[in-house]
Amino acid sequence: MEWYTSAVRSALAATFGTAARLRRGRPFHPSGLIFDAHLRLHGAPNRWGAAFLDQRISLRGVARLSRSIGVPAPLPDILGLAFRWQDDDATADLLLATTGRTTLGRRLLRPTTQWTGLYTSLFPYQADGRRLLLGALLHTPTPLPAALDAVAQAVESGPLLLELLVAAPSGPWQLFGQVELSGPPIGDADMRFNPLRHPIPDLRPAGWLNEVRDAAYVAAQRVPDPVDKSLTC
């Protein structure tokens, strides 16, 4: 199994590295906006064995909303939601993307035409020997079209609110906190997210797919974004 894992890692690194060079930057999620993020955690109803999920915590960081393939709106795209914050002097990253809502669907990426909806970690985490998925639900009074200018205008009118969710891979979602996104957008072309290099304390990415996907992140992130992308990260 070790040789197979090594072969897959090498193949992913080569594929994502080539894609990044061809696109002269990020192979996926090339366009996005960064906002200030205030995470207010109150703890899930059931304990999971990780402070991030169990305790009352207030964290300040940033969030990036992005389109995965980069096709122009209003065409559907897989949407990304990335968080970064400091926890005990360590950087923590959380990457989420639009998926379905069923037990199977939450493990499958889903293109959509609006920011409003469910985002999940897709890949499992492990806390205190238990596997889990993380998610976020973006609420707006009316559906918010998945265009970058639309989300920028929405934040100008007031903060966007998201619910933070946790669930066993086939269990119901539990609310453990909220996130408030506020503007104006922050431009930082050098910011790259990697939940494997910047893990959440007490939450370990679990499973074989997590073992191999780090190679894809590292290879893709060796290629810098064009200098003039002032509002992407």
What does this 3D model show about the protein?
This protein is of the alpha+beta class and 233 residues long. The longest helix is centred in the first third of the chain and has 22 residues. The chain has an eight-stranded antiparallel beta barrel with strand order 1-2-3-4-5-7-8-9. It has four helices and ten strands. It has one domain: Beta Barrel (Catalase HpII,  Chain A, domain 1), CATH 2.40.180.10. The C terminus is likely disordered. 33% of the residues are buried. Helix 1 packs parallel to helix 4.
Features of this protein?
233 residues; alpha+beta; Catalase HpII,  Chain A, domain 1; eight-stranded antiparallel β-barrel; 4 helices; 34% strand; disordered C terminus
Please tell me the overall pLDDT: 82
Binned, the helix content reads 10-25%
Which architecture would the CATH scheme give at its second level? Beta Barrel
Low-confidence segments: 7-25, 227-233
Q: Count of helices?
A: 4
CATH topology: Catalase HpII,  Chain A, domain 1
Q: Structural class of the secondary structure composition?
A: alpha+beta
